[in-house]
Amino acid sequence: MKEISAKEVQQVLEQGQALNLIDVREVDEVEAGHIPGIIHIPLGLLEFRMHELDKNKSYVMICRSGGRSGRATQILESNGFDVSNMVGGMLAWEGEVQ
């Protein structure tokens, strides 16, 4: 499983590069604060909404601490997606939140 640190994600975004960030937390968690520009797909709905994603793009999975996003990364990886897990999740995030 590929991993990326919260700091690396922040640096890429601050350089003005686009990342496809998927937040797999629940609705109330995302509403409490999330990285601007995320795609929100709760983990429980990921398998049902996978068809919305593009296998030609890379994705970074995000959750609170890295556990749920790790499971999401495995699910998407096993279905042929290019995906990385943001280690430490939002607990490790020091950048902007909405």
Q: Strand sequence of the main sheet, in spatial order?
A: 1-5-4-2-3
Count every beta strand, where a strand is a DSSP E run of 2 or more residues: 5
Note the main sheet: 5 strands, parallel
- DSSP helix count? 4
Could you name the CATH topology?
A: Oxidized Rhodanese, domain 1
In N-to-C order, the SSE pattern is: EHEHEHEHE
- Outline type: globular
- Structural class comes to alpha/beta
The tally of structural domains comes to 1
CATH class: Alpha Beta
Measured distance between first and last alpha carbons? 28 Å
The named CATH superfamily: Rhodanese-like domain
Overall mean pLDDT score? 97
Strand content is 15-25%
Radius of gyration: 12 Å
The CATH architecture can be named as: 3-Layer(aba) Sandwich
Helix content: 25-40%
Unreliable stretches, pLDDT < 50, 5 or more residues?
A: none
Notes on the structure:
The chain has 98 residues and is an alpha/beta fold. It has a single domain, classed as 3-Layer(aba) Sandwich (Oxidized Rhodanese, domain 1). 32% of the residues lie in helices and 20% in strands. It contains four helices and five strands, in the order βαβαβαβαβ. It has helices spanning 6-14, 27-32, 46-49, 67-78; strands spanning 2-5, 21-23, 39-40, 58-62, 82-87. Strands 1-5-4-2-3 form a five-stranded parallel β-sheet. α4 links the parallel β4 (58-62) and β5 (82-87). The protein is globular. The termini are far apart. The relative contact order is 0.28. The mean pLDDT is 97.
